């Protein structure tokens, strides 16, 4: 036994290997299972809402943590997607450079994910030299393989902004119904869609109606998805079998292609360049005519964004190709919302196939449906509900948020975020089930055994088996049932997690804890058991403590901080996920002190629930009044704050209050100062104006005699006189 009072079974792979970054990057090992994980890159120009978090980053984090509990080399990569029209235009509007804007927003995202305890191995961004280099290399490989075609078409150009306008920045008159505020891609009144804003009558620049627009031809490079489709389909059929895909928006589990764009005539060549400045420059191909046509253009954001996965990895290690060009040794798992499936199963794989290089391709795709808020939508452009940066304003810990969101993970259908269920999840599940089990056992051992784990001396541990408990056959049977139930659930847990059915994994985890509570009840753990059957009592506690050790690893992916709290109480190091329930904390081991894992949320008469509903919008009506949908809302996410409003270090609310207080103070001081400096003539005249105004009011209310209209004229004359006097005083003070 060590000085720390620990007595833990020694076995290869029993503990979790925790990577020490000072020893270098995590790299895959040849001939072993290696897991590369990505979550959809959040668009930098917005605040992630809970729907984004549950679908992408949180889900991927849970899976990455699960893989680490298997001691499998695991790399989880994500970052902000920064290029494109929306960023460039917003930066223009706010008078900052796109890079400045991205840097601030990147920081905002960083803080949200940090609060949610998302454990990226590398959290990066796409505006890096590595990203430019790899994107241009992919482009040039496709070019070399004759997979581009140049197409010229008319585009709307703003002579004042000196740029081609993306569809969403053009407005005009609908040629069909005459509606004056039709958007560049669609008329909101008659729903006619336009293939180009040049179809609008009287097109205007959305930034400024006075700007002069013209139509200019522009040439773009289109990637030949039509030529790539046969190879893409061949890959899809193999990948879905190898990675055990379920049905998704592109291909069913039976291999039937259902993506409309791939049916009929199939995929069309698709433009991958844009007339923008904020993006990856189109590289020179060596073809003079073509390079001239592409001069000053950038690569379109859907083409460069997925290359962010390898390029962010390249900012983590210069050996990034060991992860990304190693299809035989690396399994790539990608997490995203359902609206991103096409990009990850069609566009990105087509690009990679087109390079002719041995890229690590998608192994398993995990996509989620939408998470709705109360009775309205999260996942649309409206700013409704709780956003990533408000979760902490509730004062509830990240573990509870993670647990609740994951327990509602919309795996097969849309699901709903409800405050009532959030509170119930904490009080009735986490606290009553898991918290209670851990607390009851640790407290009992603290109090009755001076924290020393009971059990037969010199017991070697290992796989749990029901040992004959003397002549007590009933007790032996209780243990046998307990062990077999735990093992059955452990197997189900592993299977669910391997299939990225994270919600079920969590449910099974809670069932394991509930089985522990039942075991204590079946054995009537109490003082009487301790007094009358001390040996039996010790055995029950030894089993219970080792179930708690198992729970620490089962819940590690979902609630890392809670898992740490359990380990602290057990005085044990983080363990790996075993295949079978085993006795690894041995008799004689000293536990830590009992502490509460969860805190009850008081909700008398549903008051807390109502409070949060009010704070964050409880129904669509209220929420829309508070935060109307804006044209600046990115289709993926919530309202977009102004760069200057992003306070990344201090609390936003506190800063706002401080600003307000300072402004009020200044105003008061200014008023007092002005009062002090007034001349007697000004003060006298002010008094007259006030008295005359009161007289007019009294007459109108019938409280005084007189001709209201005549007195009103007098009041106006007095006011004019006062204004004249003030003007003179001001001129005098300036002179
Ligand atoms: Zn119309
Ligand atoms: Zn303009």
From TrEMBL:
Residue ranges constituting the Methionyl/Leucyl tRNA synthetase domain according to the UniProt record: 35-441
Region spans: Disordered: 662-688
InterPro entries linked to this entry: aa-tRNA-synth_I_CS, Anticodon_Met, Met-tRNA_ligase_1, Met-tRNA_synth, Methionyl/Leucyl_tRNA_Synth, MetRS_core, MetRS_Zn, Rossmann-like_a/b/a_fold
Coiled-coil intervals: 701-735
EC number: 6.1.1.10
Single GO biological process annotation from the record: methionyl-tRNA aminoacylation
Record-given protein name: methionine--tRNA ligase
Residue ranges with Low complexity bias: 662-672
Cellular localisation: Cytoplasm
Domain Methionyl-tRNA synthetase anticodon-binding: 474-619
Keyword tags: Aminoacyl-tRNA synthetase, ATP-binding, Coiled coil, Cytoplasm, Ligase, Nucleotide-binding, Protein biosynthesis
Catalytic activity: tRNA(Met) + L-methionine + ATP = L-methionyl-tRNA(Met) + AMP + diphosphate
Main location: cytoplasm
Biased segments, Basic and acidic residues type: 673-687
PROSITE patterns (UniProt xref): AA_TRNA_LIGASE_I
Family: Belongs to the class-I aminoacyl-tRNA synthetase family.
A Pfam family: tRNA-synt_1g
EC main group: ligase
Gene Ontology molecular-function annotations: ATP binding; methionine-tRNA ligase activity
Gene Ontology CC, one term: aminoacyl-tRNA synthetase multienzyme complex
Organism encoding this protein: Kwoniella heveanensis BCC8398
